[in-house]
Each structure stands twice: as structure tokens, then as C-alpha cells.
Design a protein that fits this description.
The protein is an all-alpha fold. The protein is built from ten helices and no strands. The longest helix has 28 residues. The termini are far apart.
Amino acid sequence: MEARPGEGVARCRQLFMNEKAPGAWRAVLGWTLVAVLLLNVSSVLAHWVGAPPMLVVAFGTVVAMGGTAAWAERAIPGGRAWWRWGSCSRGHVVGATALGVGVGLVGTLLLLGTAALWPGGPELLAAREVVLAPLLRVDDARWIPVVVLVLALLPGVFEEGLYRGVLRHLLLTWSPTRRVLFLALCFAGAHLDVLGFVGLFVAGVAFGWLAERGGGVGLAIIGHVAMNAFNAVVLVRVATLPGVAERPGVLLVALGVAGVLLVTVGVRLIGGRGEMKRR
């Protein structure tokens, strides 16, 4: 059967716009692909003009995640209802912070475990460290505010605004559990990080749970910023302390125990019992 003129365009518009259509999950995948493409293109352009590495990352994050969120927001009917901050009491803020840091510790443990088991994992891990070294500036404490801004605050705001904000709105007809898991998969996959995929998925589940509990992006942003800031500022400096590299087993046990304890504290402070409401 021949397609009528404009039918393909109409299908694309429905795919990206209709949050109640059975293909809403394909719309989420479509917007995730848009974000990945924008991130790569913007990063290449910024690098091409000779921008410093930190500026390349900041530009890519704002253009890719913020740009995709703004674009999707205009395309999806319903106004800005999904941008609400949600419940955010003092206990919830502390709980989201603890959960974020704990998930970051668990994610680091999963990253190191994946590197040990994955073929060529140690080489990939070494290449990852080479890429991150100019960004983290472990030897320069004056660099810390810039690290927090670019590697924690910007990703926390714009990534959560996209995934737990705009794209979550597309899946409101789904059950909360299914919605959280699917968005976590998209979130982890968008990073294109083989070694970090499992840890990123766990983080995505935690941020999704925070969004469902709080009824908005506020707690998810707090948890995300806390995770990235702790990993980029504290954890990398702990790993460089004298004697730590010679005793990796102790570090792994400490990461696991501290991570689980903080996640438990965070869940209890926010309220882990009961069923998430369909929002």
C-alpha cells in the first residue's frame, strides 16, 4: 500500500509527541538518541575550535541535555507540568544526598568489578583515567568549584530535567516501576560507557525512585549532584592517598560497606515503605 504524501512526517510527529500512544517508549528512545547525537556533535565542535576540556564538557552538557529537554518540551503537549520541583523537606534533602553519595560509591565498586571481568577492561579503565585526568585536576584544590559546577551541577540539573522530567512525562500511563527501569536503561545507555553501564543503571533507578517519591525532579537533581560531586571531588582524592593503591581490597570493601549504609539511610529518610503513586 502506497503511503500518502506527508504520512511519514505525521507518523514521526506522533512518535515524538503523543505521550498516550502505545509507542511512547519509542519516543523516549528517539529523544535519547537526539541527546546522544547533540552531545557528540557539540563536543566535537567545541574541541575543534580549541576550547579547554572542561568547557567542552560544559558546552556539550548544556547543548545536548538542556537543548533536547527544551526541544522535547515544546514538542510534547501538556505545558511545563513535568518541571515541577516536587516534595523537598529537609529530611528528604538529606536523604537524597545520602542516597546519591551511596549510589556513587556502589557505582564505583561496580565499575571496578566490571573492569576486572570485562575483556580488555583494565585497558579501558586506564584510557578512562587519561580522559578524566585533565578534568578532575586532583592536584589543584582551586579547581574544585569548577569541577563541582561542570561535572556535578550541570549534569545533575540538565540530565534529570530531561530523563526524570520531560521524558518521564511521556510514560505517565506506565506503572512507576516499569517507568523507572526503562528510563534508567535509557539514561545508562546514553552515556556510551561499557564499564560504567551497570553503575549508571543503578544510579538511574535511584534517581527515578527519588522522582517518583518526590513527585518532581527536585530530589533526583539533589541526588545526582551529590553523587557526581562526591565522586569527582572526594573519592578521586581518596584514591590517590598514600597506601590506598597498594591495598585495593580494603578500598573495595570500604566502598561497598559505605555505599550500602548510605543508600539504606537515604531510603529510610525519604520513606522506602509503601507503593509509589502513579503520577
